[in-house]
Design a protein that fits this description.
Helix 1 crosses helix 2. The strands form 5 sheets. Strands 4, 5, 6, 7, 8, 17 and 22 form a 7-stranded mixed sheet that branches. This protein is of the alpha+beta class and 402 residues long. The chain contains 5 helices and 22 strands.
Amino acid sequence: MSNVLLTPNIIMKESLVILENMLVAARKVNRAYENQNKPNATFKRGDTVNVRRPNRFTVSSGAALAVQDITEVSVPVVVNKQRHVDFTFPTKDLTLIIEEFSDRYLKPAMAALANQIDFDVLAEANNIYNIVGTAGVTPANFAALASVTRRLNEEAAPVDETRTLIIDPAAEVTLADALKANFNPTGNISGIFEDAQIAKVAGLSVFMDQNVNLHTNGQRGGVPLVNGAPANGSTSLVTDAWTAAAANRLKTGDVFTIANVFAVNPQSRQTTGVLRQFVATADAASDGAGNVTISVSPAMFFSGALQNIDSQPADNAPLTFFGTASQVYTNNLGFHKDAITLVTVPLEMPAGVHFAARETYKGINLRIVRQYTIADDQIPTRIDVLYGTKTIYPELACRLAG
């Protein structure tokens, strides 16, 4: 019987199924672009695609019709993450059955890619301004999880089945121990083994992921104060009273509050009784006079339709930062699906190669290319994925420090 060689398309189809099944965080975020992707489209690293933000509506009262204008907003997402696994295998291995080939090459390769994609998705935590818990202390009880739910509720996140909490291995152990009296392994066994799901707690589907990111706070220094009240809708905050002339005063992802500036519910505009948290969206240094201009999210709206704080930050109001200077802590992440988007796009197919394929499965696009090199009698192979990640509704997410 003659040998039947594995084709690149067979290898790609098997790889995609393995990769999709290994993803954790990436399976739970918004993937709307999958339905917008044009057939046979190809992209290069650095290209930009436009992803439609999910529509959000307000509720009217009374019998009168109050038709809302629907304006679909697209968010640009740069597909700047080209990740690949590169290896070499001899031609004779193409005669293996797909299960054997998969075990030897595809499963370890896809495990590496899946972990990288999840890591990049979870890195979006630095764009999230809401954070609960205590920096450096692993969450260890129901109250920790419920605090994430409370913050999502205060931000009017949709209450549905797409609320997820991704935790690191340390939190998995402490929470499992704390909740073991209420945990039924028999009833949850399939979720644990098939989806890496631990349980559903406080309205959150809880998953463990080894790729939860760490955050390192800036060096801080001084007793920072607001320097001049910011305008309505401002995305920058001028501050002073820092220690003079030093880099890394703030790092992207640092969270702070401003005295007497409280968050409001985006629907009712009523104060939540919780100080509004802001996140630095860029690293910042202090000048020789101890001044720092902080790029912040969310924009500071204290009036109008987009109001998210109850009052204008006052001149000389002190800032209070989450965690201590230079502290490293874990960014466990709770979110509604629409908070973050992941876009994967098909790469261009190179010319002049004898073994190449591109396949799509559940919105994930992979490409394999194999080329003989006569100089060293080797046949290097690479499997590539090209994607972009972006936080599109940061108010629908909340970090849980650990």
